Amino acid sequence: MCGVVGIAGKSPVNQMLFDALTMLQHRGQDAAGIVTCHQGRLFLRKDNGMVRDVFHTRHMRALLGNYGIGHVRYPTAGSSSSAEAQPFYVNSPYGITLAHNGNLTNAIEIHDDLFKTDLRHMNTDSDSEVLLNVFAHELQKIGTLNPTPEDIFHTVSRVHERCKGAYGVVAMITGHGLVGFRDPNGIRPLIYGSRETEQGTEYIIASESVAITALGFKIERDIAPGEAIFIDSEGQLFSKQCAVNPEYRPCIFEYVYFARPDATIDGISVYKARLKMGEKLAYKILKEWGEEHDIDVVIPIPDTSRTSALELANILGVKFREGFMKNRYIGRTFIMPGQQQRKKSVRQKLNPVELEFKDKNVLLVDDSIVRGTTCNEIIQMARDSGAKKVFFASAAPMVKYPNVYGIDMPAKSELIASERSVEEIREIIGADRLIFQDLEDLKNAVSTSKVPDLREFDCSVFDGVYVAGGINQQYLTDLEQKRNDTAKKNADGYIDVNIDAASVDLTGIREA
């Protein structure tokens, strides 16, 4: 999962891009990058690390221009090398930079076609670089000095034809404008906004609405599945549906875990959806455990589950308490490779408030259970703090299948629920009782009548149905070999040789 932003401004956009990426930091903590355009030249700064660590004053001063795009990244497979930090750049045609959130499921096949047929070279294993080269090649085939909006939209339609999977994309065509487009199923989110200035209208495209409102822009709408928008160098906006038979099937896990609670995605309030998840789960507890559920206190596992846990406690009529204090300087354990590193970080990240556990029957609520490693550690922390009984509730259903659309759900063999029953999982994590959300209840919690076209979601991690198609057992087997913890350790073990584009300016890009 990543976060993208693009701004077509009437004044320098460097600070706005920095602020937007800070608002999207929860979507990726591995790397960050910004590229801007000024008088036909590109200025780039990207590296591994958090936004605040990648960009210093000297970098910000060097990011000149009124147009730019930005990216925050975490890797879904393979290496976390700085060479794969985005945005990516290709020289021909025009000079194109691109930032991508999602995952192409046919990237390997396209990579071969690009090399053997399209005669294009790629420098990394990133599917984002594959997507960039497809876009660039299809645009170059048009062969015009000044591409029109229709040329851009034709190019996006060809991307849809060639690329399978999930993608929310922002791209900048040097001297010509800013492009944003979304996969034909709308799996990954993309939204745009505008604001009026004395110089004219400015536009912003981003992964989440929070990056738009925090900068004082007005939300216009979500970009529809398969749609593209183009803001030219004069600041005029054009839009067109570029896919054949697009369908609204956004990733339901955005609402469970990834998106900020104050975000609105595809017209659905993430906060309200999580309240409803807690409501549905509470009624399931009452149905299965009865009115005499024996719960003294409900405690969320910070931060994502807090909203669901609060509503759950209200309906059960029991106390809601903050039993874990979070160290906000430790990264998300969900993103970290290696079981030992995840275990260590849980103890560093969460510290129990013992008086909320001592001599009580505690219901811990989490957004989901993936590997189960952190659940086991947290339950043990609750027992060490004096809890009599520790119950555990997941606001999401059982995660049984890997994600192929840009979320780092690990290899199937590493998913605790892949081949186990609820009782078997309960024993492994050490809970006295365990309950999961039902999938239909989750869908109902997220659904809204305000978006009539949105009838289905990508629920592949729960039901194994991959909405973009083309996924077979061989694909999943190959994916497992790339995503398991051993593969990630090996991939990160190589020596990465970087050439500083500030001192070797061969492409026309300058390193900020």
Automatic annotation (TrEMBL):
UniProt cross-references to Pfam families, sorted A to Z: GATase_6, Pribosyltran
Example of a GO biological process term: 'de novo' IMP biosynthetic process
Catalytic site: 2
Domain Glutamine amidotransferase type-2: 2-234
Superkingdom: Bacteria
Co-factor note (free text): Binds 1 Mg(2+) ion per subunit.
Cofactor(s) the protein requires to work: Mg(2+)
UniProt KW keywords: Glutamine amidotransferase, Glycosyltransferase, Magnesium, Metal-binding, Purine biosynthesis, Transferase
Reactions accelerated catalytically: 5-phospho-beta-D-ribosylamine + L-glutamate + diphosphate = 5-phospho-alpha-D-ribose 1-diphosphate + L-glutamine + H2O
Recorded GO MF terms: amidophosphoribosyltransferase activity; magnesium ion binding
Statement: the UniProt record of this protein carries the keyword Ribonucleoprotein: no
Binding residues for Mg(2+): 304, 366-367
Role played: Catalyzes the formation of phosphoribosylamine from phosphoribosylpyrophosphate (PRPP) and glutamine.
HAMAP family on file: PurF (MF_01931)
Protein family: In the C-terminal section; belongs to the purine/pyrimidine phosphoribosyltransferase family.
Protein name: Amidophosphoribosyltransferase
Protein's organism: Acinetobacter haemolyticus CIP 64.3 = MTCC 9819
